[in-house]
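Below is one protein, fold included:
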Amino acid sequence: MSREAEEFRVGTEIVAGVDGSPESLAAAEWAAREAEHREVPLRLVHAWRWEPLDLPLVQDQGAQERAAEEVVRAAEARIAERHPGVAVTAEVLKDTPVPALLDAQHGAGMLVIGSRGHGAVAGFLLGSYGMQLIAAASRPVVAVRSHDDRAAEPPTGEILVGQQGTPEDSEAMLRFAFETAHARGAAIRAVRAWSLPSLYAFSPASMRLADDAGGLLPFEEKALREALAPWRERYPHVPVTEHVELGSAGQVLLTTSGAAQLLVVGRRAKRGALGQRIGSVAHAALHLAPCPVAVIPQG
């Protein structure tokens, strides 16, 4: 196997969460295509746990268990019919959604979930659990919209990836983007957004670095080239476009995502007063990007 092939065959499988909704079926379809590209198995999972209600209602545990099993079997049959070359399995995980999917990620290359599209945080698959999962996962999580026709068709367009900070800061995102582009035979657009420093951010040392590069814009362009260099060497056949633009990272990524087949962003989860937060760039991408979004945990 070539070095390039070894690079993108990371993880023993792709895991997709399904619950019978159009959103989760779109996620399963996207995951099946990615499994085809990467030549890895696909595992479909549905989280269900018997939790009787304290109400005067007839509650049939057996019927609910059979319904949960039917969810994954129906998704499995759909994928097996449409993607006969993919080794697909299906399983009911007897736990609540977030712990179940976080446990399922071990040994996987990525998790794939559905998104109901534009709207509130609760619009993701499994309700608010989707955001909790993205914030806590140690593997890349891909959110796929149900109305996105690109989830059900061969992908076209570029892989769009955001690069910020040092090469080490963006290593995980660039790795995922190059692996995916190589697997799909796609091109990459690497975006680095920058802003004019505030008066208090100026210092002789920082200005000397900018002056050595020929100015602030050349300094940012040089930083992007240096971050991309090792990945271009590993994947010499992947076309790369460098895109450096003045503006906020979220704004620049969204304005360039219209023709993308996938947007790759990073996240460093932080705990706030309302729980886990994933950062403004990932938050904006998940809510507003028109294409599937891969959120990659950083460091």
Notes: The two ends are 29 Å apart (CA to CA). Residues 1-9, 117-127 have pLDDT under 50 and may be disordered. The domain at 3-151 is CATH 3.40.50.620 (Rossmann fold). Residues 197 and 216 are 10 Å apart (CA to CA).
